[in-house]
């Protein structure tokens, strides 16, 4: 992962002003002077919010969102898509916190971070009452932060069992810091356990990646049944649930049939955007580089952009 920089042209597009206006306002001292590299002005995504404020424009998001990628079925793309989505939001200027809820630490690795390079995870927060600020890591992107995971997180399930308010500990830990982020994105493991329950209760939106096969379809049924019991037990309901097809290949008959079944039974939740099968997504994930940096012009990146447009319809995007 690398720090994203923008040219004056792209940066002005992200601010929804013309390049001429940007340069004029800089010349007149109404906007800060940009950094210059090799004679060219460069701009950073983490400055977008401050610029919008000076320009008197609406912030990037008016309502902060906390989102979890969850499916009890394994290998549906929770990790790769949540990582690339969150990274892309940061590229577009949002303050983003990613939380790796899986002791396998795949999300952490998907961002190119060595699982041996940190010694605190959510375990320290949820079980040992460490301050959540102490487990938030910086990344190469200034406006993308990460709560990483590695195998040190695995005893958390057992340790939570004997604790008070064991289902609400993450929600409570986040309460003091969540306003600093436009979006908090969590990547869950494919299991039904206390850690994932903590993740669910700390979020207000759910993303469910599904593969176009009938096992995934069955998995959805289990997921919705589980959500119904959570709703009853904790009086908790997501503001939004988004199901999306991942690894989609329109030339496969089974994909078309699974899509039709989803449209029939889950139409209220199904996203228009599908993430198509793209080997670059798998390559980028395995190399620890976000798809929009690894292959920005590929269909994987284009699908992530469409996905973001569907979730944040007013967000300016540059390619
Ligand atoms: N759209 C796609 N095109 C091609 N490969 C993909 C796509 N989405 C995910 N993959 C690949 O599929 C595999 C599983 O994806 P990923 O690890 O993100 O799933 P997961 O739901 O997080 O799995 P787990 O349940 O084990 O946590 C990975 O190798 C990933 O790179
Ligand atoms: Mg995963």
Write the layout of secondary structure elements.
Layout: H1 8-15, H2 19-27, E1 35-37, E2 40-42, H3 48-54, E3 65-69, H4 78-91, E4 96-100, H5 106-110, H6 122-126, E5 137-138, E6 144-147, H7 156-161, H8 169-175, E7 183-187, H9 194-202, E8 205-211, H10 214-234, E9 240-248, H11 253-265, E10 275-276, H12 279-287, H13 291-294, H14 299-311
Parallel strand pairs: 3-7, 3-8, 4-6, 4-7, 8-9, 9-10
Antiparallel strand pairs: 1-2, 5-6
Helix pairs in contact: 1-2, 4-14, 8-9
Magnesium ion binds next to helix 4.
Mean pLDDT over all positions: 94
Distance from N terminus to C terminus (CA atoms, Å) equals: 17 Å
Order of helical and strand elements = HHEEHEHEHHEEHHEHEHEHEHHH
E-strand count: 10
Strand count, sense and barrel status of the largest sheet are: 8 strands, mixed
Which of globular, elongated, flat, extended, rod-shaped describes the shape? globular
The number of helical segments is 14
CATH architecture of the largest domain: 3-Layer(aba) Sandwich
Ligands, ions, cofactors: adenosine-5'-triphosphate, magnesium ion
So what's the CATH class of the largest domain? Alpha Beta
Q: Find the structural class using helix and strand composition.
A: alpha/beta
Helix content: 40-55%
Question: C-alpha Rg, in Å?
Answer: 20 Å
Share in β-strands:
5-15%
């Amino acid at each position: 992962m690398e720090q994203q920089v923008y040219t004056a042209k792209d940066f002005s597009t992200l601010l929804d002003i013309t390049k001429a206006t940007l340069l004029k306002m800089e010349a007149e001292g109404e906007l800060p002077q940009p950094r210059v590299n090799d004679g060219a002005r460069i701009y950073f995504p983490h400055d977008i919010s401050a610029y919008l404020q000076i320009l008197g424009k609406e912030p990037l998001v008016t309502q902060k969102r906390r989102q979890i990628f969850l499916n009890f079925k394994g290998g549906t793309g929770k990790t790769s898509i949540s990582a690339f989505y969150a990274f892309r939001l940061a590229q577009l200027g949002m303050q983003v916190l990613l939380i790796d809820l899986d002791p396998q630490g795949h999300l952490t690795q998907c961002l190119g971070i060595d699982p041996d390079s940190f010694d605190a995870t959510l375990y320290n927060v949820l079980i040992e009452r460490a301050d959540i600020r102490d487990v938030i890591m910086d990344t190469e992107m200034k406006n993308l932060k990460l709560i990483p995971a590695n195998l040190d997180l695995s005893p958390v399930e057992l340790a939570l069992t004997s604790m008070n308010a064991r289902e609400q500990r993450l929600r409570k830990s986040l309460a003091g810091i969540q306003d600093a982020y436009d979006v908090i994105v969590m990547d869950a493991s494919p299991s039904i356990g206390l850690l994932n329950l903590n993740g669910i209760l700390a979020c207000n939106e759910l993303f469910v990646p599904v593969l176009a096969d009938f096992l995934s379809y069955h998995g959805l049924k289990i997921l919705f049944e589980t959500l119904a019991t959570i709703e009853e037990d904790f009086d908790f309901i997501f503001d939004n649930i988004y199901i999306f097809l991942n690894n989609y290949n329109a030339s496969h008959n089974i994909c078309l049939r699974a899509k039709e079944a989803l449209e029939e039974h889950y139409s209220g939740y199904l996203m228009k955007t599908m993430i198509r099968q793209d080997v670059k997504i798998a390559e980028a994930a395995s190399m620890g580089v976000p798809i929009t940096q690894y292959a920005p012009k590929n269909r994987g990146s284009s699908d992530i952009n469409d996905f973001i447009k569907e979730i944040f319809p007013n967000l300016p995007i540059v390619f």
